[in-house]
Design goal:
271 residues; alpha/beta; Rossmann fold; 5-stranded antiparallel sheet
Length: 271
């Protein structure tokens, strides 16, 4: 019996290249991006259903986290929508799930290329854990790994997929587009992308030995380098925060979920 948890981001979806496509304020361009997100998700979900997967949960993990519409997605899934929610992009994940999929993901902050590359927010020029730059792929894989749940599939641009392979050892990836720059990409023909999504899901579910449980041991030191020095000024007011430079702060803990929640809180509250 296989239960699949899907964390669904938006920047890694095909033909999403500009910031306005990722926010409701972008109007028609945003609506078209969400339409493409639904197409890619439905292809994955329908394939999982064909494979007789027992349970599928989709967590809307982008921005305001209300991008995915029940009426436009397969009726056979649970949808986690809205924010705030504990552990954000991984909300409600527990040991009942067999594996996780990261769908529509993007590369980390500080990447040379990578379409719309960032980590949690554009307010950070760099996010590190234990001195190493980290992105949402690795951040979320660590959380999943603490529950002993493997990452089974990652989809996104070529830089995100390379990051998944190099940083967490995920061998099952689907490249939705090839990054040319921060806001430019070569997108695959849709029929080819859908074929690749379907075949990769089939191969992934039929080969559980290819799934990756990723771990990172405590303690965890989170370092945030802000674009705006004032954000570091404000973050430093929290007694648990240590100021380490004009634009950088750090926080150390043995509790990964607490660290994740602090990152989520700072992202939501600082300018």
């Amino acid at each position: 019996m296989v239960n699949v948890y899907i964390s669904a981001d938006l920047e890694g979806v095909s033909n999403v290249i500009y910031p306005q496509q990722t926010d409701l304020s972008g109007g028609e361009s945003y609506l078209l991006a969400v339409k493409q997100q639904h197409k890619e998700l439905n292809c994955i979900i329908d394939t999982l259903i064909d494979l007789k997967v027992n349970k599928i949960t989709v967590n809307d993990a982008h921005g305001s986290m209300d991008n995915i519409r029940l009426g436009d997605i397969s009726p056979n899934i649970e949808l986690i929508s809205g924010k705030p929610k504990p552990v954000s992009m991984m909300a409600c994940l527990d040991e009942t799930y067999s594996c996780v999929f990261f769908v529509g993901y993007h590369a980390k902050a500080g990447s040379l290329k990578g379409v719309l590359a960032h980590t949690f927010s554009e307010k950070y020029s760099l996010v590190k854990i234990n001195g190493k730059p980290i992105g949402e792929i690795e951040l979320n894989a660590v959380y999943s790994g603490l529950l002993n749940i493997p990452v089974a599939l990652v989809t996104g641009d070529d830089v995100a997929c390379e990051e998944a392979a190099n940083e967490i050892g995920c061998t099952n990836t689907v490249i939705t587009k090839t990054a040319i720059s921060t806001t430019s990409a070569k997108c695959k023909p849709e029929n080819i992308l859908m074929q690749e999504l379907r075949s990769s899901v089939i191969s992934t579910i039929n080969n559980p030995d290819s799934w990756t449980v990723y771990s990172k041991k405590a303690p965890y030191t989170l370092e945030l380098d802000f674009v705006d020095r004032k954000s570091a000024d404000l973050a430093e007011l929290l007694p648990v925060i240590k100021r380490i430079s004009a634009t950088e702060i750090s926080y150390t803990t043995d509790n990964y979920a607490e660290m994740y929640k602090l990152l989520q809180f700072l992202t939501a509250t600082l300018p």
